[in-house]
C-alpha cells in the first residue's frame, strides 16, 4: 500500500494519543508496539475485509488447514514487510527518535506450538496468503503457550508463558461466530416419521467455542487470509443456570495450555478434549459458512478442502459425518463420499510413540455420538475390505483394534490423500508404519516435501544477506525464491564471497552480543559457529554433538600447541517436562559448557553456549549467524526437518545424516557442499532385522570413543554424577537405541574435515553460497503450490520453476 513517512508519523502520534492519553515520551516500547499494531491492523483492514468479500463473490474453493499447533512468530515486522511498509515505518520511527528493533522486540512471540509441526503450519499460512489461495487456519487459542525455559544450576526449569498478559493486538474476538461443542452425555436414536433414526444427545457437557481471528497478510498482493483460533468458555446459558466449579474448571482447562510434548502421545483425556474441541468448532463453522451460500450439500466437495495436520485433528472426519447426517439429513453413503473427498492428511512421523491412539472406553465416555460413527466406519471398512485383503490385514488396519481408536488409520481411511513430508519419510510410511494401509489404498499415498517461508527466514531474519543478494541478482527472488539459483554464477567470484563472509561476521556479532548479555560468555566472530537448534530428543542425538565437544576439549588439553580454528558450539532446545532422559542431556550440555568455558587452558578456542528458551524469535537471531548446521538424527527417524532448510538458506553447510529432507538438501546443493555421514536408513533397518547391534563393540574398538564415554562417569565433567551414569548406561547397558556409537567415527571425521575446510574462507564461502543458491527449492511457496495442485485442487499465483 501507499503511505508517506509524514502520513505515517502523523497517524502514529495520533494513535499513541488516543490509546494512552499521554505524550510519546511517556510511553514504553510495549505501548509503542501496541499502537503500531493497531495502525497496521487499520492499514490492512480493508484488504482483510475485501479478501473475504472476494472469496465469497467468486465462490472460491476454500482450504481449511487444521492444526493443533501454530507458531507464527512475531507478526509486526512480517506484516509490515508483506504490506510493503517496512522501510517507511522504520524510517518514520527513527525520525521520531524511536528504536524500531526495540519496539518489535516488545511483541510477545506466541508459542502456540512445540516445534517443527507448528512452525510448518505457520509457514504454510504465510504462503497460502502470498499465493492468493483462499486458505484458512483452524487451531486453538491457548491461554498459555509452550513453557518458558530457564536454567537453574544447569537444569531446565519451566515457567508459564503468559503471552496474553497485555492482550493481543492482532486478534479479533468474534463472539457472534461462536458455537457449542458438546461432550459426554448419552445418545439415543429417535424414530422419524420417514422410518429413519435420528441421533439425539442428552445431558451433554456443553462448551462455548469462541473464535479469535488473526489476519495472515500475503506478500505484496493485497490478500489477507484468516487464522481462526478457538477459545473455550462457559456457554451463555451459564448466566442463569448453576454450573459447578468443577464444571467451570473443566471448560477453562480445555484451552488453557499447550501440551508440551513433541512427537509423543500421552493419551490423556484432556488432550482428546482439546482435539475434539477445535475439530468440532472448526467443522461447524465451515458448514455454517458454506450453508450461507450454497443450496445443497452436494457442492461441498467442490467448495471446501480440509487438511488434517498430523492426527490431532482427525476427529474432523467423524464430526463432519455427524453434522451431515444428524443436522443436514444426508444418508451415510452421501456423507461418507463427501467427507472423504474433502479430507486430506499429512503424517509427520514414523515413531511409534507419536502415533495417537485413544482407549475406546475413554473415547466413548467423552464422545458417545462420535464413537457410534467411528464404530460404523470401522464396521463398514471391515465388511468392504475383508473379502479382498483378508481378516488379518483388516484387523491390523481397522480404526478400532486392541481396545483403541487408532487415529492414523482413521485419518487414512477417511481421506482421499495421505502424504509424508520428505521422499524417504514417504517411502518408510509405505514400507513400514502404514504398509498394510498402503496395500489397501495405494493411490492415496504421496509425498510433499516440507518448505519454509523464505520471507521470514531470509528477508526478515537476515536483511544484510537479502540486500547483498539484491545487489547481485535483483529482487525477483523475493517473490520467486527459485530465482536464488542464479546465484550459482558467483560461486567463484572472490569479491562477492568476501561480501558474503562480511555479512556472516556481522550476523555473528549480533548473536555474540546476545550470548554475552544473556550467558556472559565471550565468543569470537571468526570462530566456527556450529549450531544445533531443535527440540531435545534422543533420536535427534544432541549427544553425538556433545561427544564432539568433549573430543575437541580433550584434544586442546592434550596438545595445546596444535592450531585449529576456534569453535563455538551453540545449542537451543527445550525438553518436554516429563522427558527425563532429555533433561539429563540438557544438564550434561550445561555442565560441559561450565567446564569448557571456564578452563583457562582452553581460552577462546572453544566455547559452548546453550541459549535458553529457543523459539521462533531466537531462531531468527541464531540461524543467520550459523556456519555449520547440525542435522544428525538417526537415519529414518526425522520425518523431514525444517531447521535444516532455514540454516541452508542462510548459508550454513549441513553436517548431516542421510535422514529426512537432509537427503534432498544434499542433492540440491551438491555433495561437495555438505558434510554427510553415518548409517543409512537401510543400514539401521538391517540392524533391526538381524538384531545384531552391539554398542559395546564400538566402545571397545575405539580408544578415543572409550575415553570420551568414560568422562561421563569418571568425574572429568563435574556435577553430573547421576546424569552421566544414566547416559552412559543408556549407551552400554541398554545398547544405544539410536546408534550414537555406530555413527561416532564418521561424524568426527566430517567434523575434522570441517575444521580443515574452514581455514580456506574463499572455498568455505563458496559452499555457503551453493547452499543459499539451492535453497529456493525448499520454499514453502513451492510446497504449498504442490499441495494446491495435487491435493486441494485450488488455483494459486504462478511461481517460476
Ligand atoms: N514433528 Br508427529 C513435530 O514437530 N511434532 C510432532 O508432533 C510430530 C512431528 C516434526 C517432525 O519431527 C519433523 O521431522 C518435521 O520436519 C516437522 O514435524 C514438520 O513436518
What do you see in this structure?
The chain has 2 domains: 59-74 and 109-448, Glycogen Phosphorylase B (Rossmann fold, 3-Layer(aba) Sandwich), CATH 3.40.50.2000; 454-766, 3-Layer(aba) Sandwich (Rossmann fold), CATH 3.40.50.2000. Helices cover 49% and strands 15% of the residues. It is built from 31 helices and 23 strands. The strands form 5 sheets. Strands 1, 2, 5, 6, 9, 10, 11, 12, 16 and 17 form a 10-stranded mixed β-sheet that branches. Strands 20-19-18-21-22-23 form a 6-stranded parallel β-sheet, sandwiched between helices. β9 (205-217) and β10 (224-233) form a beta hairpin. The structure holds 5-bromo-1-(beta-D-glucopyranosyl)pyrimidine-2,4(1H,3H)-dione (GPU). The site of 5-bromo-1-(beta-D-glucopyranosyl)pyrimidine-2,4(1H,3H)-dione has 19 residues, from α6. Belongs to the glycogen phosphorylase family.
Shape by Cα distribution: globular
What's the CATH H-level superfamily name of the largest domain? Glycogen Phosphorylase B
Distance between the termini: 28 Å
What is the domain tally?
Answer: 2
Radius of gyration: 27 Å
Helicity, as a percent range: 40-55%
Number of strands: 23
Major sheet, described briefly?
10 strands, mixed
What is the helix tally? 31
CATH architecture of the largest domain: 3-Layer(aba) Sandwich
Strand content: 5-15%
CATH class of the largest domain: Alpha Beta
Low-confidence stretches: none
Q: Averaged pLDDT, please?
A: 96
Query: Which structural category fits the helices and strands?
Result: alpha/beta
Provide the list of bound ligands, each named once: 5-bromo-1-(beta-D-glucopyranosyl)pyrimidine-2,4(1H,3H)-dione
CATH topology of the largest domain: Rossmann fold
